[in-house]
Amino acid sequence: MTPTRYFYNLTLERIFEAFEQADLDIEPGFVFLNSLENRVIRAEERDGTRWVAKFYRPGRWSRAALREEHDFLEELKEAGLPVSPPLELEHKDTVGVVSGIYFAIFPYQFGRCPDEIELHHVHALGDMLARLHNVGERRAARHRPVIGPRSWGLENLEALRAEKVVPGEIWPGYEKTVRSLVSRVERMFAEIRPIRLHGDLHRGNLLYSSQGLELVDFDDFAMGPPVQDLWLLLPGRDEDSVAMRETLLETYCKRRPFDRRSLTLIEPLRALKFVRYATWVARRRHDPVFVPLFPEVESHSFWRRELEDLQAQLARLR
Fold first, then answer.
1. Annotated catalytic residue within 23, 71, 93, 217
2. In degrees, to the nearest 5, what angle opens at C-alpha 159 toward C-alphas 153 and 162?
3. Which of 24, 83, 120, 217 is the residue whose CA sits 20 to 30 A from 113?
4. How many CA atoms does the CB half-sphere of 50 hold within 13 Å?
């Protein structure tokens, strides 16, 4: 377990060094923005221009995987999507490194995320999502995961086994439930062609300002079924959420076709997300930032709840 894994080497000197690689003259005084996965820091130049440095969690992504994310952002920007690609650093690369930590420098994006997705948002989101997926289907991402039962189910299950954090009396039931889930849904996923996606397009990754809508945080950029970006925007099961989803799809389909069979993947994706979340928390449980927020992660009660939630979701699929 190397110190860099938890950003101990990210000193003020290293932060200044990162901005210098972008040829930015930053004023003293940084603001650490909310982020559990990475370290995200806002800074200002002398003229008041704001920038954001994202320092990626060591060991999560390769340089090639980060370049694919940045290249996708550039493609989206060229296609007129409301995104902000990172700056070129030294050697014409968008991925820098300080003390073994990869980083990128982004323009600061103003705005606030909506408290909830409402009907007046839906038409713009449907059009935007279709345009994003039109770009996403142009080529594959070779260094990013494919969202589905193997990566979010079996690979996370093996990661949990290696962490040895699930109590022994709970593990057999948890493993059996995950494997039953994967067995039940893998054929469904095989019928839908994966494309490049945002991957984590919930309302917290939308910013609205006087300039309009902005998409942020492509850290979970991946290959996967297009419905992944849709259901996270409107995750509810109630009548209003389903009606808004249909309205979004009406706008979406004016720009690109949507395979309605993939709507049957929403509940399997929700179940797989339970497994992914549990693995994420287990892997990060020793990070000093996580410890006060997830104090029960090694407790019997935490994993009992995780198992019961997963079993309930699997029962819903049946």
1. 217
2. 145
3. 24
4. 11
Distance CA 125, CA 174 (A): 37
The CATH superfamily label for domain 119-317 reads Transferase(Phosphotransferase) domain 1 (1.10.510.10)
Which DSSP state fits 259? -
- What 8-state DSSP symbol labels residue 45? B
Reply yes or no on whether 220 is catalytic.
Answer: no
pLDDT tens-digit profile of 143-180?
999 999 999 999 999 999 999 999 999 999 999 999 99
Spatial distance between the Cα atoms of 141 and 223, rounded to a whole number of angstroms = 7
Determine the CATH number of domain 3-107. 3.30.200.70
Query: Which tokens sit at 53?
Result: 């440095």
Q: Which of 127, 200, 219, 240 is catalytic?
A: 200
pTM of the model: 0.94
pLDDT means per 10 residues, the chain with 318 residues, are 69 94 91 93 94 95 98 98 95 93 95 90 95 98 98 97 97 98 96 97 93 93 98 94 96 97 97 97 93 94 98 94
* Residue the block writes with tokens 């690109």: 256
Straight-line distance from the first to the last Cα atom of the chain, in angstroms, rounded to the nearest whole number = 41
Beta strand pairing call for 101-107 and 96-98: antiparallel
